[in-house]
Write a structure and sequence with these properties.
Elements lengths: L1 H5 L5 E4 L8 H9 L6 E6 L6 E4 L11 E5 L6 H11 L4 E4 L7 E7 L5 E10 L15 E2 L6 H6 L18 H10 L10
Helix pairs in contact: 2-3
């Protein structure tokens, strides 16, 4: 991010579409690169103490305008990050609602070699909404194409980015995010 800024970048699009793995701690630390105040997320469960994760101003790296791209396959830690950005009015989230998988799990090995996976905690948005099973709604929705013609018009646009490749310029979610960063309609203002 610092290198982008040194090279003259003034605005940022963070693409979390298709991002469904990683650790919650990574999402929390990444959110701290963008947030100078506010709650990132809260973790609650029956058998674990409630933990509130806050922004740390000294860790902020990017202060410019930004948007976050999401899709129905954005899950887990990426949902925590997207919710932190939108919930603190740091930038718009653009695309579709997320999957709803942000939780803390415990694996219990069984004697027969199988394992039992228990959800022991759930992550909440800065607005105190449970992410598990609900997902995170975008601040600016860009629905997937639903007509046959729309499918033909964007048939070469992957619904989620391919790692290591930039999305196509015709990608409707990217186009909307660029429009927002150029002063178009969105709901958040960078702080």
């Amino acid at each position: 991010l610092e290198q982008f800024e040194q090279e003259g970048a003034e605005k940022l699009i963070l693409d979390l579409r298709g991002c469904s793995s990683g650790e919650a701690d990574e999402a929390i630390e990444t959110a701290r690169f963008f947030l100078n105040s506010g709650t990132i997320t809260t973790l609650r469960g029956q058998t674990i103490s409630t933990k509130v994760f806050k922004a740390e101003p000294r860790k902020v790296v990017w202060k410019g305008p930004m948007t976050v791209l999401m899709s129905g396959s954005t899950a887990g830690p990426a949902e925590i990050l997207a919710a932190a950005i939108s919930g603190n009015h740091r930038g718009d989230t653009v695309g579709e609602g997320t999957l709803g998988m942000a939780s803390e799990q415990k694996v219990i090995p069984l004697q027969n070699g199988a394992a039992l996976i228990l959800t022991v905690g759930m992550y909440y948005t800065p607005g105190n909404q449970e992410i598990l099973n609900n997902g995170v709604d975008p601040t600016v929705q860009v629905p997937p194409p639903n007509s046959q013609q729309a499918l033909l018009d964007v048939q070469d646009v992957a619904p989620d980015p391919v790692p290591g490749k930039l999305p196509k310029a015709t990608d409707p979610v990217v186009k909307k995010a660029v429009g927002i960063l150029q002063g178009g309609s969105g709901s958040s203002k960078a702080s």
